[in-house]
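Limitations

Structures in this collection are predictions, not experimental determinations, and the ligand pose is part of the prediction. Treat each record accordingly. The example that follows, with pyridoxal-5'-phosphate as the small molecule, is included so readers can see exactly what is and is not provided: the inputs are given verbatim, and the output is the predicted complex.
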Amino acid sequence: MPFPVIGPRQEHSMAGSVVDFKNLSCEGQNNYLKALRSFPGQAIIDFSALVGNMRLMRSLFAPSEVMGIVKANAYGHGLIPSCLAALKAGCSWIGVAKAQEALAIRKGGVGPKMCRILAWLANCVWAPYEEMIEEGIDIALGSLDEIEAVSKAAQKAKKRARVHIVVDTGFSRNGFLDRSFESALALLKKYSDEGRFEVVGIMSHFSSADMEDGASERYTDLQLENFSKFVRRARAAGFKGLLRHIANSASSFSRPLSRLEMSRPGNSFYGYAADYALGSPQDFGLTPALTLEAQLAKVKDVGGGRAVSYGRTYETQRETSLAIVPLGYADGILRTAGGSNSSSKKAGAPVRILTSSGPKIARACGRVCMDQFMVDLGAPLERLGVLEGDTVRLFGPGRGEGEAEPTADDWAKRSDNISYVIYTNLSLRIPRLYVNARKELNEKELSLLNPECVLS
Ligand SMILES: *Cc1c(COP(=O)(O)O)cnc(C)c1O
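Predicted complex:
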């Protein structure tokens, strides 16, 4: 495959990107060009950031194990690649919410010898329990109906099901309450004695570990206390050597005692604290892995007093220019990210534009549309040197000083949300491209990635 030839206008377009086009391999360059032609926005994911975040957590939380959480397409970062990054950093456990996600990992080539997978959300009527048992997937049991269904599946599969008991310590989502726990333990005991279950672990989930007010801290204490009580009862019922796991990103960092045998940090794997109020990625030594970029669809000079987008919530204040960023709520850009300055005032989410005098932060103005939103560039185009097709950055790890690249936390702040939602929402039509994958993975691991997604 020959190196592609690109013209000056294409070079201009790429100048704002984090992708170091000139230094990519021929294959990498062709993949990037193909992605640019297939869609006007890209999520560029740094493999080394994922591996580094997980290595950091594994060393901080040791001797507690760390489960790599890759539910919801790995919070938007890509299921198999993120899974491989967690394994590369030494994880032996992978966690997902839905049964089908666990099966997708196995189908993607990550076999039972490579890691354990736990799936914690299913329903007893339709869940593919038999297939899960055959694929060696651990199943979290949170209801009596589920215990019965998994026991039947184990009998059919002629194989012991590996199960974890889910207990409700105060979140009121999945799990047994005090009142049903005795019956649950009795059933679990019966089926383990009959060789249908291997009860591997016991788990729960915190409701407020990311909040630092006194009442929330006391509530987290209370949940931990409740968890110990459930564990004691399970032990008394004969379940020994249970893997206890309850910690999420927030509590794994802030409460060493919550880590127990294993913690389950999700958001921090992708480079962010559970809440921006707790600190920046840098404060935690984390590196955000995903950079979202787009190519400006249209740019134009406009005068003052122009109403922008639906409902006229934004009006230009003087001679300026507007640009269209071709990502909208169909792509996962939150409608709350828009900016208004007419009836009510609210700064829009930031976008970093490369001008002839350096990077500049422009803000989303007016309502976010289905496929696009507008930014006010603040000056005429000629002065800025901004052209149609230029690559702009919506968020990333925060590179640069002064007009630094925005982060997903900045987007969360401007759209009344949390970083989780900012990247998990990104639609599948946005290509996911990986850099540093070749650096981190061996040939066999690389062969599990879609080759068109690998830039370097
Ligand atoms: C999502 C999830 C986690 C990870 O939570 P973070 O806040 O992303 O660290 C852990 N455990 C369960 C059960 C979850 O649903």
